[in-house]
Write a structure and sequence with these properties.
- Helices cover 6% and strands 38% of the residues.
- It is globular and about 75 Å long.
- It contains four helices and 41 strands.
């Protein structure tokens, strides 16, 4: 929902007058200088909401293109628990390094958090260090009541919490006492105080930014990551603009934390694995997250009680083809051409070549071991990078199809893709609603490489799956025109209802759930969402599961 225009710059007085004019409803045909959209808050965990916002400047203005990722944390939720980087054993007091360095994703996974973001500035000249490398934090840091790093004058903008998550923002020096402080992080500048933007005039650099804010009633904590250094996607923000974003999102007070390539916001996926929400510039440049010293994490519970909506299912899984399946492929511009249908003549395309199909312009020997690498694709000789879009086609056979069957896709995709079955679109992964040969993906997997699966299911009801021969066509897009690699491979299964369904029983034993089944030869699977991904559990009947540690949906797989 458009709500107004982002300031072009604090040092631009004309721009400031225009922002004041445009915060009221626009009833005339006055041309817009920039389009600012504040994303809807969507619940992800109990007490944690997510929002994706953007600013698109008009041509010829000084404003900046920005993509803004934010979490809103309800500090009044009794199940929300805050956690920051703990002190190294024998660190700090002995004069040795204070903490063990980790990426934000590793921090979330190590401590089984539901969300995490980078926090304090830190002392480092190298950024891609092994996990556990000793590091020092700049400014105040307290983890679970333990002093990790002392306050410093240059980093005196601090955000502290007591054991009940009651917050305080301190922006003055000398530093406020830390008696009763259970959790603390610190940045370098205050950005908001009682709704007023305090960003310093002399800090006009446009960079990726990390910022924390509090609502006026101090109930809500805002964690904000603004992507930057990626022309055509997101430029970054000045400190003034960062303060305005905090205010737009609902904050009354806020501070600036470490930004640049360290800006990283991560959330746990349905299996508890780290899922990076934003696109750090460090990952865009190197393919890897930075190893940093200071992190801020949140423990939260699932949105729905685990024992609700348990589903009982019985399926037979038929593998159609695996990830080494052969595809025909091309990089030609196919805009306006019906290349997705059965009748299209692809005899002039390259291949068929087995998956994984890949192209990589980066230096050999430093690349992730994405396997199995089988068919190397062409790179654009003009740019020296992979093409923005690659097109793939393959034929497969389907047996007679039972109602309520499901197509299950397990794909390795770098970066986004659109899938077509017999000429009809059936699914999109990290792609906008409309595509052409120059469209870029909206995100990328894992650490920027196809090292983890994109799994999804498509019910056959309503899609043109045929008994006999079918055509699957896929267009794979890079997320950045300067991205050094592209990868595609796919395994496809047809999951059909068992004609003789078995029974999955559920019961309670005090505070635990008991699942049981009588038939042999079946594997118990679990997922948080009905559409998956589904994961095998190493379990025999009966199995006891604690509600807060289990998935919400269960099924048996033969």
């Amino acid at each position: 929902m458009p709500i107004g225009r982002l300031p072009l710059s604090r040092a631009h007085p004309i721009a400031r007058s225009l922002i004041l004019a445009f915060t009221l409803p626009v009833l005339s045909a006055t041309p817009a200088l920039a389009q600012t959209t504040i994303g809807e808050w969507k619940p992800k965990f109990k007490g944690i909401d997510f929002s994706l916002s953007s600013n698109i400047p008009a041509a010829g203005t000084l404003s900046h293109q920005q993509i803004v990722y934010a979490l809103r944390v309800d500090l009044a939720d009794p199940d929300i628990r805050l956690f920051t980087t703990p002190r190294l054993v024998n660190g700090y007091l002995s004069g040795s390094s204070e903490v063990a360095g980790r990426t934000v994703s590793t921090f979330l996974g190590t401590y089984h958090l539901q969300a995490a973001i980078n926090a304090n500035f830190f002392d480092a000249t190298l950024y891609y260090l092994p996990t556990g490398t000793p590091m020092d934090i700049a400014g105040l840091a307290i983890s679970e009541g333990v002093m990790v790093s002392r306050p410093e004058l240059a980093y005196s903008a601090a955000l502290t919490f007591d054991m009940n998550n009651r917050p305080t923002i301190s922006t003055s020096w000398p530093a406020a006492p830390t008696n009763g402080v259970y959790t603390a992080i610190a940045g370098n500048y205050p950005l908001l105080r009682r709704g007023q933007n305090l960003a310093p005039d002399f800090m006009t650099d446009v960079e990726p930014r990390t910022a924390f804010g509090l609502s006026e009633d101090q109930r809500y904590l805002f964690l904000v990551a603004i992507d930057g250094r990626q022309p055509g996607y997101s430029d970054g923000a000045t400190l003034w603009e960062t303060g305005e974003w905090l205010r737009f999102l609902g904050a009354s007070d806020g501070i600036n934390l470490d930004g640049g390539g360290s800006t990283t916001l991560v959330m746990a996926d349905s299996n508890g694995a780290p899922l990076r929400l934003n696109h750090p510039s460090a990952v865009a440049d190197s393919g890897r997250e930075r190893t940093i010293a200071s992190h801020f994490g949140i423990f939260a519970k699932p949105l729905v009680p685990i024992t609700n909506d348990v589903t009982t299912s019985s399926f037979i899984t038929n593998r159609v083809f695996d990830v080494t399946n052969a595809w025909k492929f091309t990089t030609s511009n196919l805009d306006g051409i019906d290349w997705k249908s059965q009748g299209f003549d692809d005899s002039g395309w390259s291949g068929p070549g087995p998956g994984l199909l890949w192209a990589d312009s980066r230096t050999a020997g430093t690349l992730p071991d994405v396997q199995p690498k089988n068919t190397e694709l062409d790179i654009d000789a003009t740019t020296g990078f992979p093409f923005p879009t690659y097109y793939f086609r393959t034929h497969f056979q389907a047996p007679s199809i039972r109602p309520k069957s499901i197509l299950m896709f397990s794909a390795l995709i770098d970066d986004g893709a659109v899938f077509y079955l017999n000429g009809t679109e059936i699914y999109r992964v990290r792609m906008p609603a409309e595509t052409s040969s120059t469209t870029l993906a909206t995100g990328y997997p894992c650490e920027g490489d196809a090292t983890c699966l994109d799994q999804f299911v498509v019910p056959i009801d309503g899609v043109p799956l045929r008994a006999g021969e079918n055509l699957l066509a896929v267009e794979v897009h890079n997320y950045n025109s300067r991205s050094g690699d592209i990868t595609f491979g796919l395994a496809l299964s047809l999951i059909e209802p068992n004609s003789q369904p078995i029974r999955l029983n559920i019961a309670r034993n005090n505070e635990k759930i008991v699942l049981s089944w009588e038939e042999s030869g079946y594997t118990l699977q679990a997922a948080i969402r009905l559409e998956g991904p589904w994961n095998d559990l190493e379990a025999v009947s009966p199995i006891e599961i604690r509600p807060l540690e289990a998935a919400r949906f269960f099924r048996l797989r033969q």
